[in-house]
């Protein structure tokens, strides 16, 4: 009786350990490989504002088995480099290195995910200054500022959380550690390799600390988030930006993706007026945003009025299908997460309700109801 | 105690690898050279033409003509090619200019048709005017915003003064303003010749198919390959554009480097990689194994620096660019950096050279990512060297570099050699030429 | 070998592990503490460690705020009493239980990091 229960338990345990990490790879003929560990730990999952940014900056700091210094020094002798980035969905740990060093980099990344020490002095001496610098850089760019405001206007919470740590809500090293414990689990991370043999990668991942990560729950969200329409204005020195955004459901991705590419291609007579147009795609929702930028706010004002009125009147965007497909193909080759979008059913576009953000010399920029 | 981070036997476990694509080159009977670096796994293909004339082939009166030609290529019929799904790109270097179209799939003939049409038909007045306008805007933006880039251009202009390499790649506002359509056409007539061109392909394109298509579709004008009237030569000199309204100091200093065909090309690259680059705001950058960083970080001597080894057909530049917001540290930064250069000749260690070699390999292998830049690179190298060496051969060359090679190169090319200096921003603290020149050697060590 | 914080800890661990050695050395140490008299001035042993070097500066910077404040208070108080040739009232003397190392862990950490940097700077490659 007892022994059979033990056996049953052992069986359950082995089943669980069989549950593997999501690992995928595409091989290439180059001399170089890159690995990305994508963790669903971006700002939309943040327990406190900016904690994801700080965790991202804590990656590649001291671990209990290897100091940050030793990691950098070893890695440069092998010919490789590390990088950790944060966005709304992911914290991405990326390593680029010469092909033959795959085992070292898999184990180093596993080390970082599993054993980072989170020492208090690292937060004040290394992480916070770096985070502060990131914020300062982002605040010099009016388009990034507009984007941040558009997200918080459209989504308020979740995708609307600030990406970068600004110190408004205090985050301690314990908060970062707790967040790391929450997000770094087997179900919540994906390992993607480029220029890597998939079999090799899986083998090395199994031998690394990745396989010792705890089981957990995936944080990925699938329910449609709440979206709102609104307006925000921010006075700031420098160039002025007027921008609009529309929340996009996954079934409309093709239409808005094509729109963004159409508006920035030579096919559109609006292209010279539009500084940037893009569709950000997430698992359960997306955001289309469009930016008009310029040193002279009155010119920006007339340009955004023109762009919005033309979009409201409707546009045939189908002629951009081929160039959009070509651009996507080029981008997919460089990215870790190739996107496939079929534009076949897209014809035209008409702008409905939208959110609006003005940044810069806002006295000269129009209000949403004037567009 | 001797510790090592070199690859242990365990790390050398077998890893499956695919064979790398080898650049293929064919010379056609009509003199046209076709070069491809195909990668059948790619979803896109890039086909284009690279000419062996860049800004060095211009003169002070038509400087910027290549840049303008590139713009015309991209704007003319922009809408039409976009609808066909072609992504046009063009690039101008000092020794080359490229015209490349990228598309999905692998049929080179439609791209070649487009290229042939573009290169053979004249330029419309409307697209010329629009391109000129755009180019002037970009030149102005470059001059007022990209201080680091501007300083590097001025470094070329002072180092190679009165010789072809001195001209800025983008062109000067004065020259571009006076350009007319006829200038572009006459430049194209003199330089866009079969003898001066390589048809390139990369990505999902087969060499044989491209050769066949080129034979039937492309006819470039014949003629003698244009040769520069003047050789570029290096002159120790300086140019200072002091501007105290700017928030930092941008400084570039270089000695003469290696031309592309030099046997020491990779030695110079390794030497530059030993000091590498540094960004003060990036934590990992501060931990690099570069001796210079100990001094820089203790006194916050600079915000960032970057060592380079730039090579052209006739000559090159080997040196560094830096951005300094701590103005009082300008002299320290320059002095200690040049003292480190001295070490290349006298006391560089095997670890530092090994580090430089590894990072150079990483840099070269990860340089060209998209097919369009692979194609441009292929063309530029084929024109300069007659062929593009396969990466495996390049790696073998880098592996063969010893500490003694670096020391020998540095003692010939850096130790007590003349330097060129260019700087802008708040550079009151940049001491005079002779003082900096004196740092290129030591009385004793 | 120059004396480092790490070597001090190593040596004392060695002494404490051996009953014979500790029987001799520990009473001597206790006498030393008694005659040094720093506890009568309200100081803890770690307050006496020379701070004019990079390692100690790094460690001081990393002290938690309350520890750092208490340290400065003790040092100022000791100076004041020393200046007036007084000892603290007996009930305020630091007891052996209070005289615990508080900065030593930070010193050891900073020293280890500095040693690691030194080692890595002078790394020699073995082919």
Automatic annotation (TrEMBL), chain A:
Keywords tagged on the record: Electron transport, Membrane, Mitochondrion, Mitochondrion inner membrane, Respiratory chain, Transit peptide, Transport
InterPro entries linked: Metalloenz_LuxS/M16 (IPR011249), MPP/UQCRC_Complex (IPR050361), Pept_M16_N (IPR011765), Peptidase_M16_C (IPR007863)
Listed Gene3D superfamilies: Metalloenzyme, LuxS/M16 peptidase-like
A GO term from the CC aspect: mitochondrial inner membrane
MF term (GO), any: metal ion binding
Main subcellular localisation: mitochondrion
Domain called Peptidase M16 C-terminal: residue spans: 170-313
Record-linked Pfam families: Peptidase_M16, Peptidase_M16_C
Subcellular location, record wording: Mitochondrion inner membrane
Ranges where the Peptidase M16 N-terminal domain occurs: 23-166
Recorded superkingdom: Eukaryota
Membrane topology: Peripheral membrane protein
Family per similarity comment: Belongs to the peptidase M16 family. UQCRC2/QCR2 subfamily.
PANTHER family with a match to the protein in the record: CYTOCHROME B-C1 COMPLEX SUBUNIT 2, MITOCHONDRIAL (PTHR11851:SF209), METALLOPROTEASE (PTHR11851)
Protein name: Cytochrome b-c1 complex subunit 2, mitochondrial
Organism the protein comes from: Lachancea mirantina
Organism lineage string: Eukaryota, Fungi, Dikarya, Ascomycota, Saccharomycotina
Automatic annotation (TrEMBL), chain B:
Domain Peptidase M16 N-terminal: 33-172
Residues spanning the signal sequence: none
GO CC term (a single one): mitochondrion
Pfam families (alphabetical): Peptidase_M16, Peptidase_M16_C
Span of domain Peptidase M16 C-terminal: 179-359
Any one GO molecular function term: metalloendopeptidase activity
InterPro entries: Metalloenz_LuxS/M16, MPP/UQCRC_Complex, Pept_M16_N, Peptidase_M16_C
Gene Ontology BP term (one): aerobic respiration
SUPFAM superfamilies: LuxS/MPP-like metallohydrolase
Official protein name in the record: LAMI_0C04698g1_1
From TrEMBL, chain C:
GO cellular component: mitochondrial inner membrane; respiratory chain complex III
UniProt keyword Membrane present: yes
Compartments (UniProt record): Mitochondrion inner membrane
PANTHER family for this protein: CYTOCHROME B-C1 COMPLEX SUBUNIT 7, UBIQUINOL-CYTOCHROME C REDUCTASE COMPLEX 14 KD PROTEIN
GO terms classed as biological process: mitochondrial electron transport, ubiquinol to cytochrome c
KW Hydrolase (keyword) present: no
Topological type in the membrane: Peripheral membrane protein
Function text: Component of the ubiquinol-cytochrome c oxidoreductase, a multisubunit transmembrane complex that is part of the mitochondrial electron transport chain which drives oxidative phosphorylation.
Source organism of the structure: Lachancea mirantina
Name this polypeptide is given: Cytochrome b-c1 complex subunit 7
Family in the record: Belongs to the UQCRB/QCR7 family.
InterPro entries according to UniProt: QCR7 (IPR003197), QCR7_sf (IPR036544)
Pfam family, one: UCR_14kD
